[in-house]
Every structure is written in structure tokens, then in C-alpha cells.
Amino acid sequence: MRQRLHPLTPLLKGAKLVAFAAAAVSWRGLSDLGLVHWLAAMGAILVAAVVVSAVVWFVTGYEIVGRELRVHEGLISRRTRTIPLERVQAIDVVRPLLARVFGLAELRLEVIGASKTEAPLAYLTVAGAAGLRARLIGLSTGVPHTHAATTDTGAGESRVFAVANRRLLLAQLLTPQALTVPAGLAFVAWQATLDPTWTLIGAASTITAFLSVFQVPVRRVLDEWDFTIGTDAAALRLRQGLLNKRSQTVPPHRVQGLKVTWPLLWRRAGWARARLDVAGYAGHGEAQLRTGTLVPVASTPDTLAVVTTVLTAAVHARPAKPPPMPPPASAGHWPPVDAVTVSVTGPPRRARWLAPLAWSRIGIGVTDTVVVVREGVLTRELVVVPLARVQSVRVVQGPLQRALDLATVHVDTAGGLHAVGRHRATADAYALADLLAATSRTARHAAVAVSLRKPPAPPPDQVAAPPPDPHAAPPGPIAAPPNPVAAPPPNPVAAPPDPIATPPGPVAAPHPPV
What we know:
By secondary structure, the protein is of the alpha+beta class. 33% of the residues lie in helices and 23% in strands. The protein contains twelve helices and 19 strands. The strands form four sheets. The chain has a seven-stranded antiparallel sheet, sandwiched between helices. Strands 13-12-11-16-15-14 form a six-stranded antiparallel sheet. Strands 1-2-3 form a three-stranded antiparallel sheet. Strand 1 (61-65) and strand 2 (68-73) form a beta hairpin. Helix 1 runs antiparallel to helix 2. It is globular, with a radius of gyration of 26 Å. Mean pLDDT is 79; it is low at 282-287, 320-332, 448-501 and 507-514.
């Protein structure tokens, strides 16, 4: 049955357009028009926007038919967008500040291969958006949605991580953008002292220009405030935001890769951040980075504990439909996938002619389940890609690399994060590409469907069941240790491996190429 969006949708969209118009007019426009004419212009824009939005609202509707979401829109030219739920990578419930005043939310579907958010449904009631999301996730993954999943309150979820807001604020002050603000304020004061005719409008315009540099850390604080990660039987649940609340739902088998970063100014404090790469998230640069946040800031052991937990679920989980392969009888509990302990090897010494500072900090390693890349001099990075998500492997060789008998191996995924093994010896690069192609093919075939709530139990003849403990906490949905952020995983590292300094030589293969 076709349904419409909330009746207040035209008003909210009209107010949003007025805000954009006010920003476009800027201080100079306010000075030229005057306050009365400026308010009249904004009122006319609001009325026109509400009328147009009301017409769009009247001809827009959505419905679920089988395993498809259909969105109908258009007045003169009717259009129906059909979204197969098998292509849905993540579903977000976003609550902008103005929508929160009226108790409304926007539902966004991220589809693989789309250049922008597919069929955003703005606006629905919060309960309606959460219920629709739970139903779509259930149809996409095959895991029936529960009543708790339709409330968007976090009930029935297992907490994996919660950011410390004070640390988040301090971390954003330790960024290059934040450190330029005092210089900008000093420049404004200096200009006002030298030029007494400098008007308030000029000062406001200059301050606005300098604050635009500071918007990245400010936006991070606003977007990542109260950041939490939870899990249930179907997906990862990420909640964040101070003014605009965002609730992301990501099935583990949609995770394409993870990236851990140690910024230069954070290393003394032992802090790191991590991001999650999901195919289909629209945007580039900072916009895509915000939607893929996994850990805004935390100590290195806590960050790596979260990465290990999510990576283990991403490596071993697969959608429940089509019918999954039965797990092997000897599978037992899934071991944690700890990317930090993976041994990596670096390029030969002649690579220093192309990367004089970074060549000793470049390394790549391969296991049966993941490929790991470490690199970075000032900002150190650790990139992990599950082999089951590898789409292609490329060997690229530039003219200078050919002269030095070097080549670069690119491991591509369906998302925006790729693993790149730079400046390998040519023979080693082609051997590595063959190995990655074989192991990724094996990893895809060997992957089995695993429920986040109930991982496969070990056979009774191998592990004796311990007596039940009435005081023990229930097991987490991703088979994470209780309170995984408070206690680091086995063999934790207190700081990033230093680094990333790796001995030259070929990549050690986990087994001969198939």
C-alpha cells in the first residue's frame, strides 16, 4: 500500500531553503538590502518554497513490494524508483535540529553504485522511520526485526563503544585547523587597529572567512558528540550527533574495510581514530568521512579493540539470504581477527629514491582473511581490507618505477577505501597480486553465514560446556568480550607499532597460491 510522507514535510523543506538563501545573501546582502527588505525577501522565499514543497509532497509516496522499495514521485513526468533491498548497504535515520523540534526524522538508504543517497524519505515520524528501517533491514539480511529495533532507543543492543565527549573536544583542539584560529583572530584585531574605518560588516566577513577554516573540527565535534556503537542480531548500530542526530545501521557483511589513523598531534597522548568503509555512502572527502566514523577518538588499545571486534564480524558474517552454507563441523567459535599482529614487509632499499622519508614505514601483509597496509610518517595509518570484499587487484608501474624495477599493487573494494602496497619489487608485486587473487577467491568461497547474536558453538566433543554463571552478563552479539572498550584484546598494543618500520623483502604468504 502506497504511503505518504509526514504532512509537515513542506514546511520543513521550505525553512531549509530559506536558511540556504540567507547564507547565500551573507552579511553584504543584509547591508545592501536593509533589515526590512531582507526579511521581506526571506518571507517571499519561504512562501514560494512551502507551496512548491507541498505540491511535491502530494505526488510523492513509497511502498514495499516483495523485496523492493518503490518510491513514486513527479507531477508532470511521473517516475517510480525501484530499489532492490539486496543492494542496500546501510540505512540511516537522520534527525536534523529543526526536524527534532517536530519529532520527525529522515530515512536514507545507501545503495552500492549510487553517486548520492538513494531515495531519501524526508520526513517521517521517528517511530515510523525506525520501524521502516527495521523492516527493510530484516528483508535485506533475512534476520527478523524485533520490537526493540523499531524504537531506535538502543534497547536490546549490546554496547561496544562510547566516546568520551571531553576527549573528543580536546582532540579537535589538537588539529591544524584549530591552531590557525588564534592567528586569524590576531589578524582581525590588527586590521581593526590600523584601519579605524573598518566597518562591522567587514570585520564579520573576515571572521566568517577564518571560521570557515575552523569548521572541520567544529563539525566533527557536532557530528560525533555522544558517539556510541551497539550491536544486535542484524547489524551494527552507530549513533552520534549533538544538533543533528544520526543513527546508522550497517550489516557487518557490508563492511568493505577499516582504517586506523594516528595523527601527529595525538600520538603523545596515545590517541587514535578509526573509520568504517561501507560501499554506497555518497559524498567525497569530509562528507564521506563523517558517515564512516567508527571511533572518533580513543586510546590506542580501545580503538584497536573496537576494530578487532568489528573486523571479526565483518570477516565471518554473510547475509542470511540467499540460504547460507552450513558452517563446518570443526569451525568452533570464530577467532578474533587482529590486524595489528599481522606481519608486514616493506619495499626494497632502492624505493628510498621515490619515497626517501616514507620507504621504511611502508609495509603490506596478507593472511587467509585480510590484507593489511601500514604507512605514514607524520600521520600513521593502518588499512585493513577483508579478502572476501576484494573486487580487483591491479599492478601499476610508472616510468620512474620501471627504471628502478618497482611496482605498486592496488587492492580495490566496492567502497572508497583501498589497500595499496607501494614500491614493491616488480617480481614481488606480481607474485603478491597472484597471491591476493587466489586468497580472496578462497576467502569468498570459505565465508559462512554467522549470526551476530549467536556465533557457532564449538562441538561438544571438543569443548566442555562450563557450568552456567547466574551473575554473568549475556553474550554480546558480535562475540566481543564483555565491555570490549574497557579491556583490550589479547596481545594489545599500547601504541602503534613503530613503525610501521618494516624489513625489506617479499611478502610472506600464508600458503602457496592456489
